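Worked Example 4.2. Read the sequence first, then its structure tokens.
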Amino acid sequence: MPAPRPSLARTAGRIIAIPSRAAIYVGAIALLAMMGLTVADVVLRNLFSVVVPGGMEMTGLLMILVALSTLAAVELEGGHIRVDLVLQALPEYARAPTIAGGLLLTCATMVVTGVMIWAQAVYLYENGIVTGVLLVPEWPFVAFGTFFVFLFSLALLRSFAAGVGAVARLRDPRAVAILLAWIVVVAAILVMALYPQALPFDLPRETRGLAAIGLCFALIFLGVHVAAAMAVTSLVGISILISANASLTSIGTTTIDVVSDQTWSVVPLFTWMGLIVVASGFAEDLYRAAYRWIGHLPGGLASASTVACAGLSSIVGDTLSGVYSMGSIALPQMRAYGYDMKLATASIACAATIGVMIPPSLAFIVYGMITEVSIGKLFMAGILPGILFTIILVSLITIRAKLNPALAPRGEVSTWDERKQASARVWPIILLMLLVLGGIYTGIVTPNEAGGLGVFGALVIAAAMRRLTWATLWHSIERTLLLSAGIIVIFMFATAFSRFIAISGLTQQLADLIIGLELGKYQLIGAILLFYVLIGMFMNALPALVLTVPLFFPVAMSAGFDPIWFGVVVVIMVELGVVTPPIGVNVFAIATMAKDVSMYDVFRGVFPFWIAFVILIGLIVIFPQISLFLPSLM
């Protein structure tokens, strides 16, 4: 098999980069417009009792541009979410063709999706469908979405070409054979999705559903994009259960319904706010203040980074932001004081998980969107567990440092003037926290509106303090679009996946099975928690939530669990996976920042902190009001 020219994939990448860059500008304009609309609506409504006409419907249309504009750019950066555990274990002759085969399947799936979205755009155009208030035609926005999905397909084709080149350079017949087998598998999957009657044998309905679920997990563990794996499962599953037409229609309608839902604006808006806060240096101010107060205690520097992560969590909705910001600030200081680097790195990796408990939390947004539970109440439910977890972590660090002072020597004692000066610098974080959480708690704003206000407040404060440059602003917008696209594309297909789960009857079968086992409530929650520990070892938090909540939520509700309490427990458990081997994305992230510390040593450092997770989960299970008290006051 002659190797293609080495520059072919790179040339294709440069060509695709031109429209991809233009698409980013379109997304940036839409993001700015969406933030402006949200802030204007809140201000006018609360000060003058006037609403922006058509604000919600325009936010929904703008979300199509925000969510889809950077799909191709994310692919060119290699940023789409995948689980590569099995890939890493394969020999090179099997790994390279498996990557290429997965990319071919993803590309084919996105082409099918693009065709069906285009059919939606044509339908909207031919029927003259417009928005309800402003009478804005909807088809141009959906047509733009089609363009972005096809551009994503071209980027995937470019990645596939690079994969084929990698196979060719191996000059190994086994690699070629595996690639050809993948091509046959992709063709077979497309045939099953488009012509289910071609299935050579008949399967019972239950078996078809289980087979489709098995296909989904197999594809995910073989490194196929998580979004594509769910899309393929939905296409094949609904097709063999109902019909190909129903399957294709589901993909076309649900994807647009998801990205045009204005509720999803919380993802880019809170992401943007967090990026502005970190880029403006407010996270460093937070750490310095915490250090001044508790740095002199046993393990004080590690405890200070934990407290700072908790404070940062009120602004940033994910864990990796905490890892990168605190890792760059606190690690050098802990190293200078002679900290055991296993403890230093592990404390930051674990403390960053507080970000999914204290709002705004992307994990709670995801859970709320899947289950239709109030996101505002979920946000409130996470506050006390987040504070409690912070106290547990700090106590654990202090006890360990007290028992073995060599692990974490004390820092210097700060004067009261130093403490006051450092504390005075954290007012931007406190103000933004009050603006976001106070607005949600009092009901003055929705979570979406709180995100818009938070972005506007962060921009104004950072600009007033001269910590925001045009380059920083543009970088924050670009990163927001890239991160949001990587998240929302999963939920484009998670909705279709959930629909397939409902049609297959698997949730009812699972519920019947559990009822037949006659498990008590605590036995049931124990089994679910154990499952999340196991799946967290092999899958990141986001895919774990998307794949499992549609299965377990109905079971938990039939057992009588509170949906908000169950959400808190599930989110904590999936986040345990980010510090659990062999995946542990937080561990991977901190290991890239402490290059002299092996991942093995970081994982060794993490294990004692499992005690904190066990204590937290135990307390929330025994005392549910820890998570339900604040929501009950809303």
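Now turn to a second chain, presented in exactly the same format:
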Amino acid sequence: MLIIVAAAGAIFLARPDPARAAQVRLPLTIDYIALREALKRNLFTAPGGRAQLWNGIDDCQFLYAENPEFSRATAGGPATVKLETANSLGLGVSMGSQCLNAVQWSGIVEALGVPYIAPGLQLKFHFTDLNLYDSAHQKTELVSRGFDLIKSYLIPQLDGFSYDLKPAVAQLGAMVADSVTPEAADRVRAAIASLSAEPDIVALDDGIRVTLVMTVPDVPTPAAIPGAAASPTPAELKAFQNTLDQWDAFLVFSIKQLGDAVGDQQFRDQLLQILLDSRYRLVQALNNSPAAAGPDPVRILFLDEWRQLHDAVRAAARRGMLGARALEFMSFISAGDALFALDQAAPALGMRISAADLRRLAHIMAPGATGDPLQFNYREDPDLKKLFAVPEPPASRHPIEEEDVPPSAPGALPSSGGASTPAPDGAPPGSSAPPASPGPGASRRASRQIARLAPLLLRMLSLLSPREAAAAQQDKDDEPAILPQLRQVAGRLYRRVVTEDNAQTYRRDMGLLLDLSAERQLGESAIDAGGSPIYATLVRSTAWQESCWRQFVIAGAGIRWLESATGDIGLMQVNKHVWRGFYAIDRLKWDVLYNAGAGCEILARMMRYASARLKFDPVPVAGHLARSAYAAYNGGPGACNRWRRREPPALKQIDSSFWDKYRAVQDGTPIDILSCARTWGHHSAN
């Protein structure tokens, strides 16, 4: 099993030659890090990670090596590699507890060698030149017997090391077989069976490049039939969504494995950016049905995000951050590289990255993990929240509804006399709205039931021990002073829909909730004092842009949360797909305090992210920081500077609209919630 994992870790396929030819050449790079880890598991097996090369008649006579490192040699030709090891040599005679006439040497041994492919797809090395250096990497000399011992015992061990590529090829074949239709299975088996290696090998900065050759049968491309492109069927749309869900679950599994193993904060921040950018793109894909003709959006998403993950893991490996799991992680990355590159190399094979492929990759990364790595749900994930230090937003004391109510259509605007409810998105004109959550009467009945239970609850609390009662009181005392204020104003906004009759008091309460939520977040976030006014303005203007300061709307005879067609929920329009696992979806829907807190935390995170990337501003500009923070909030971390570039018209309108609102908040212009709500959805990403 170890050999299979090591071999799988060897393959990284570069961009190949065009696949329409009968033969496809697949340049692959065997990473030096993967080579090092495989060599350590093969040879450096003594205690302390040493290779015990020679032992004499007693403890005064020894030769061992440790800490091997492969790299490209600067001399010796384009195929020459360099292997450096730390060596210790002892030549003496034991006399009691001492070594007499001892030769003691410790330093670095540099071996230069040439890789070659042996029969059976075995990657081997032929080492010839040997150089000795001291700990400062200055050339040193050693008595001839010592040098001869090193050459006689180290070189044969290194020459005997081989890197078996057959298991990697077999594993790649298994993944490819999972990725093709039954009609293409024979082509796949024939292509994989034809794999062979060319003799020419090149040493690169990152690894050793070997070129595989695979024969792929030509498959005529069907002629396009005019008018044949049709909208996807409901079953195809469902399969499309399932594929995106599986990718997201796989990415979460992978990122949690990597983040748990590497505690470096910069690396974890990079992982979070990859996850969020992938999810923002996932939302875009869900909102745009795949065309029957044109590029596959799932494939593009997979390839782009995989490249980012590949680069992050390789960078961490170069910094020595992967620890004992370096080989597993490099194996995971390399096997995925091979799969994606083969998909690009040979479209004639008819490959599709499948759920089985993703599960195989997950098993390479974490062979001992239990459960399905593609399990998908919208529940909170405590491990994910802990990994990325996502705090729990404040919550109100009101009950949370749990009915499965479909989202409302944009533009559902109540008036003082009530309003007709628009049909759900995509429904034919004249269809009725979906069932709404119970109206205020149901809440009053629930309140009366709670009141009847109050004496019982008090009696139960009286049974607490003094220590438990003190702990409960301490929890209450530890609450931030601002939290009771937040809950009080949130109580006034519970299930409250803005109308012409209450617009003034509603705006006052919602503005207070936003200001208090921003103040609370500033007390918990690493935002410097100079950024506080920017952040407070940013919170108000973002809520204006995203929801027109609304959490609830009228739907039929009841009240329900505001939700866009893409799954953005409530006051701060926190997207349930992007922030899956980080927040409780039901609370985002029904608790305006929780929704405001979640949105404020996300905004603070994006503001910190944008602040670190204002490379266009030699001197920080407050407005630029606000615009970048909102762009990241709306489009993902990778979009923070999109407003500086030539944008598509829709995105330009979003960013321009936000900037108008930000300046209006700065100038003290009050929001006209009802007017804003009438055009909701026409100037945002919803």
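Notes for the reader: The CA atoms of residues 258 and 329 lie 8 Å apart. The chain is about 45% helix and 15% strand.
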